[in-house]
């Protein structure tokens, strides 16, 4: 009986999520890829409305590098706020002005406010004053058109220090058509990161994936070797 209820709940949640994704895709089609419109209308199915659980686990285990940390496509900034401290300065970057406005509002009273900042900019053209020790990508790689993935790999190299690291949460790895989110695989990341000297030091299933992402999400850590 419990298994039947759990299956029904999963089906219902899947239907709701698919509806939100379809609505998001409709907005992007209507407004020429405007993520601002998605935020304006509150159609943000990728947003967990909380810090990413596995990132919090890495933080608790003290396995995140110190120094400068970049979160591209940071949205409302939950991961930025959660990981920033005096030894780790975090930059949240997003193309959507509405998302960054929300992030700044959420973080107004944060006790670690001097340890992070939010910037409205295009990841592919932005030129920071300093590069980064760590970059965290979640629901960003899967949101860009697959034809842009090679440029993503190049930017990761340009924005990383010579011994820098990238953490990627690879989702969705299950079969799906179209996007965003576009289907991803380990091979997709390897194809665009290996030419720039990044090698995987760890690729595992993300046991802390949230909701419907459980079972179709992997955690990978990539170290720049060149």
TrEMBL record:
Keywords: Methyltransferase, Phosphoprotein, S-adenosyl-L-methionine, Transferase. Pfam families: TPMT. The keyword Oxidoreductase does not apply. One of its GO terms (biological process) is methylation. One of its GO terms (molecular function) is S-adenosylmethionine-dependent methyltransferase activity. The keyword Methyltransferase applies. This is Thiol methyltransferase 2. It comes from Papaver somniferum. The lineage of its organism: Eukaryota, Viridiplantae, Streptophyta, Embryophyta, Tracheophyta.
